[in-house]
Amino acid sequence: MPLQRPHPPPTSTQKPCRIRCCTVGGCLSAHGLAVKNQFETAVTDAGMDAQITVSSVGCLGLCSQGPLVQIDPSGDLYTNVTPGQVPQILSTLPIPSSSPKPFGQAPPTPSLSPSPPLPTPLYSILPFFTRQHRIVLENCGRIDPEQIDDYLAARGYDALHQCLRELPPAEVVEVITRSGLRGRGGAGYPTGLKWATVAKNAAGSEGRRV
């Protein structure tokens, strides 16, 4: 079967609002999964599944303030979120007010400490984020690692397709060389130089090297 360029899911299938819940290391240890589960329950109970998506995502960056929850499309970031705060956060979302059911108050979770006041959305003003320019981690905290459509929507596999089907091997090596990419084994060896050396020594031989 010929390799085809992957296509992202159509935007028509995307819901107006998305709640991104960090469910990795730091936030998990602070009961982040309980927060995500409470969002899912509250959204379903209110009959808003058609308008709101609740997603697990990778690290949202501010690990010391977890559990973290970020809202799309506003970009508002909530810190130290507890299950008890879920109804308050949902009540602020930019969705039609004619919800079939109100977002009820979440019951207290005995294993968690009492809920602090509702955090203020911080993402757009917090220096920790405003001073960053993410490159490799550009999509960190945006992709649900269990949903391939999230990766495709972020142009996942595009570079792989380009390397395998659109560029000659020598040009692939040249692109990597120009990028300045280096290994992470400690020596920081230039990847382009490594690939060029392997390609030169492999000339005329069969097989692939990964």
Structure description:
- This protein folds into two domains: 11-153, Glutaredoxin, CATH 3.40.30; 167-201, no CATH class.
- Helix 7 (169-179) runs antiparallel to helix 8 (191-201).
- It has helices at residues 25-29, 32-45, 86-90, 127-130, 148-153, 158-165, 169-179, 191-201, and strands at residues 17-22, 52-57, 69-72, 77-78.
- By secondary structure, it is of the alpha+beta class.
- The protein is elongated and about 65 Å long.
- A four-stranded mixed β-sheet has the order 2-1-3-4, with helices on one face.
- The chain contains eight helices and four strands, in the order E-H-H-E-E-E-H-H-H-H-H-H.
- The longest helix is centred in the N-terminal third of the chain and has 14 residues, at 32-45.
- Residues 106-117 have low confidence and may be disordered.
In short:
The chain has 210 residues and is an alpha+beta fold. The protein contains eight helices and four strands, in the order E-H-H-E-E-E-H-H-H-H-H-H. The protein is elongated.
Overall tally of domains:
2
Biggest sheet: strands side by side, in what order? 2-1-3-4
DSSP summary: helix tally: 8
For this structure, what is the CATH class of the largest domain?
A: Alpha Beta
**Class derived from helix and strand content:** alpha+beta
Regions with little confidence, pLDDT below 50 for 5+ residues: 106-117
* CATH architecture field of the largest domain: 3-Layer(aba) Sandwich
- The termini sit apart by 22 Å
